[in-house]
Amino acid sequence: MKNSFSAMARREAAAGYLLVAPAILLFLLIGLFTVLFSIGLSFYHLGQGSLITSAKFAGLDNFQNFLFGRDLNLSRAFKQALVNNLWVLLSTLVVIPIALAIAVMLQRISKGIRLYRTVFLLPMVTSSVAIYYVWQGIYEPEGTLNKLLAAIGLDSLIAVNGWLGELHTALPALIVTVIWGSVPGMMILYFAGLQTVDPHLYEAAEMDGAGAWQKIYRITWPILRPITVICLIMGMNGALQIFDPVWIMTKGGPANATEVVNVLVYQQAFVNGDMGVANAMGWSIFVLTFVLSLISLRILRDKSE
Amino acid sequence: MKPSAIRKIPLYAVLTVWGALCLYPLLWMIGASLKDPMDVMSSYSLLPNGVWHWDTYVDVWNKMKFFHYFLNSVNVTFFTILGINVLFTMAGFAFAKLRFPGSNMLFLGFLGMMFVPGITVMVPLYLTEHSLGLLNTHLGLILPMVNGSAPMALFLFRNYFRTIPHELYETAKLEGAGILRILYRIYIPLAIPAIATITIMNFLGSWNSLVLPMVLLNSQHLYTLPLAVMLLDTGVFRQWNVLMAGSLITIVPVILCFFLLQKYFIQGLTSGAIKS
Amino acid sequence: MRGKHKWSPVWMLVLTMAVILTACGGNNGDSSTGSSDVKLTMWHWKVAFDPGFKAVADAFKAKTGITVVTQAFTPDDAYRQKLTGAASAGDMPDLYAYWAGPLEGAFDGKALEMGPELEKDAEWKNGFLPSALQGVTVSQANLDTWAADEKSSDWKKERKVGQIYGVPLDVGAFYTIYGNAKLLKEAGLEAKAPATIEDWIDTMNKVKEKSDVPGLVFSAKTFTLYENWFMNFVDYMKNGEESFTNFMNHDEKLSDPNHIHAIKIIEDLAKSGNILPGSVSLDIDPADQAFAQGKATYDIGGTFTYASLVAMGMNPDDIISFRVPAYADSKVPDAKVTPFPLVQMVVTQGGKHQKEALEFVKYLTSEEGQILYANGAFDLPAVKINDTSKLNGSLQAMAGSLSSESNWWSENSAISGKIGQPEWQTFHADMQKVILGNMTAAEAAEDFDKAAAAEKAKAQK
């Protein structure tokens, strides 16, 4: 009995490796060298227009430059960028309930469900670059938002320099755009999850005398939990890696009010030509995101296992 | 029925407001594409003042060799999605159902790839592809895109396979079915919702991808649609109407595709829910 | 509903391989190896310049039979990434355009040294405007900067004064103010260049009073636009060579009474409502567009701005332009702005067709090639044009307005160029805060001086 069991286990393990192998091979082919190279670069000095072969070993200089004030200006910029990233991260906590609420509401209606769903997916479908330009237009000093506020008599709320142009409104305005863009992806995940719930289960639970909360806890939540984990990790990664909307809409301005780490990374790498510091920053954020994701996995872990 | 219909009015109201918010930027784009170039940024009315410039679309279509770039985009996107679904249903199943030493570490390793700073690795990626002879090929775009989607796809597939009752697996195994047969006969048909979701998500990423093809492709005849749109951005200043018209031509196939895919998406969802 | 298809993993793999091979095969499109003619590949990043390059390439083909294929990659950052990758991988195009400047785009020796070639061909060398050639030549100040920078490669540090790795393609100049003649006349003022900055601000106030149009718009979003298109030259004029050099080297402070103007003028203009609201989030083109639409009386620009303004629909009769004015108490109020190269052409060292590529660059930067290029790209030529009537109208006018004599300013671009260093990013952010009224000029100056001191301490380490 024991022998045949271990033979089966061995066969199962072999099958496991076989099934994972193509994904691993692809990573070895395309990802590994790229990643190692990039990590390596973070320990080198590499100036503007220099060849990678002429990089000079820098030890921990690059990390000290932006983390510990060896380069005062860069450290200041990095700190501000990180704080802004964390604000965007907090916004993820808003996106998830919105996405869930819309998914639930969408599931409740009977007519036009398909039309609504199609429309709700539009922010995801419309090409990102073009849509950020549109938002820029909405936020401009003479843009739709200011005109709307003027029309309804809320002149005191008007952002004279545009919503992306004032120190205290730029980041919130940007975050609204980010929320707008990230709801559909999460909404459709929740919607798909809710669809898989067998309505008979609710009926059965009702017959067992379960209350509304119990139904949610016992039937809905087990389906929604893994989805929430995905949304949380996606949102966290999105928040810490945010780049496109900031780069297109504000480039980190005004006065660094919307500076985020990836914009700083990009500027260091491709405007200042300092690949070393750029890679060091990029990988520091990698570590941060990774740790935060592990924590959220822990918290939302499946307790039945 | 009546009271429940009335109760649903606020529901519809909220959803309609959200729908309007989702729709507005697209309407703005359509309006901008039909306006006179000078009119785009000066007026915020959605509709053009006076003449509707349909001719912009004709110009863009002729200038763009749209069909050629469209085929390029289809090529890249199709094979990217195929690759993702083939590779990661297999691996996702293994991580969800099979016990093998190191599986957790491997899974976490793949998950960790999600956080790889995509922007900084661009130049190292260029060098990797150069040494593999993949530069300036569509395959050179497809492979990193497939690889890049590993964390999301694996995570979703693994989680999804885990929600399918384990008894199914045990029973099939007792009946003597091989593991691969179990995967392709039982699990894949049940995983269609997950496959549909992954397909939708990666379709967009691949279709709209800009920086990757920009860095990795040299020959114009290999360009994908977003690069073709960028070719429209010529002249001394940005012609908003032309750019928006080009963007819309790029978006329309995606919207159509979504519209068509939704049906199968729903079918997939329902068949996934019937577990008998 | 089990499907009848046998989805065996083997089939999946076969399919995947087939897919891979198909995708691979897709790129064999246009490798025309049969032709005996040389085909050069040229990369650049300015789509607007492409017609200019194409015109020259056509003429070159007619002359020599050599084909030049031009490829534009945008935006700037992607182009930079692409070239950096290509240089490191060793598969560069035969020739490419790059931002002009000593050793720019030379990638530690991947570029052909042009100096000896220029020496061999006196006619070619002497054709260039002296200030254009100067802008791409290694100077002692460059070497000093590189020596002090821990990130500079050894190759860079080993260069010598006078070396040239790319020849200028075009020229342009900053420090140009554009004014809206119509607005000025409507306010009952004369549409002419002001004598001093004080006069200039006075005019802005008058227009603002009469018609409520703010005095100035510029892309306050773009780093170094205010700093390098306006402010450094004003400081040079006001304080002269020595004090300006000290300021750039941080031996004199921004909070010093003779340099505080650099930020004080921003505070004054912002307080009097003379900076167009939203300027801090405007890019260069939208800022020019706002000016073209009459939203502000003046616009900070460069020689290249004129073409944009006209293309944006502004009536040329409504445009006046003048060099940035100097303060009344300036030491060198009549300093001449010299054109400097904006783009340079680089030939890949040891490329398969190095000789032909060099030949093309020579043709492109000959008088004949430059006329073709300039008219096609709407760009100012980097060489002396004897028969300016061959240039189209507004190019002629602009070329005529520039001084080609070399002077202190053009010879010391390494000093004014320090404006791109990190401490100036602090200045730029603080300047935006001053515009928005969230900071005073005095606070901004203090903050900058701190950042400058830190940067100086780092350089001395």
UniProtKB/TrEMBL annotation, chain A:
Family per record: Belongs to the binding-protein-dependent transport system permease family.
Name of protein: ABC transporter permease subunit
TM segment ranges: 16-44, 86-106, 118-135, 170-192, 223-243, 280-300
PROSITE patterns with a match to the protein in the record: ABC_TM1
Species this protein is from: Paenibacillus sacheonensis
Top-level taxon of origin: Bacteria
Cellular component annotations (GO), alphabetically ordered: plasma membrane
Record carries keyword Transmembrane helix: yes
PANTHER family listed in its UniProt record: ABC TRANSPORTER PERMEASE PROTEIN (PTHR30193), INNER MEMBRANE ABC TRANSPORTER PERMEASE PROTEIN YCJO (PTHR30193:SF37)
Principal subcellular localisation of the protein: membrane
Residues annotated as domain ABC transmembrane type-1: 81-296
Keywords of this entry: Cell membrane, Membrane, Transmembrane, Transmembrane helix, Transport
UniProtKB/TrEMBL annotation, chain B:
Topology versus the membrane: Multi-pass membrane protein
Name of the protein described by the UniProt record: ABC transporter permease subunit
Membrane-spanning residues: 12-34, 69-93, 105-127, 139-161, 182-204, 240-261
Domain of life: Bacteria
PROSITE patterns named in the record: ABC_TM1 (PS50928)
Ranges of residues in domain ABC transmembrane type-1: 70-261
Keyword presence, tRNA-binding: no
One cellular-component annotation, GO: plasma membrane
Pfam families attached to this UniProt entry: BPD_transp_1 (PF00528)
Biological processes, Gene Ontology terms: transmembrane transport
UniProt source species: Paenibacillus sacheonensis
Cited InterPro entries: MetI-like, MetI-like_sf
Cellular localization per UniProt: Cell membrane
SUPFAM superfamilies the record matches: MetI-like (SSF161098)
Similarity annotation: Belongs to the binding-protein-dependent transport system permease family.
Keywords: Cell membrane, Membrane, Transmembrane, Transmembrane helix, Transport
CDD domains linked to this entry: TM_PBP2
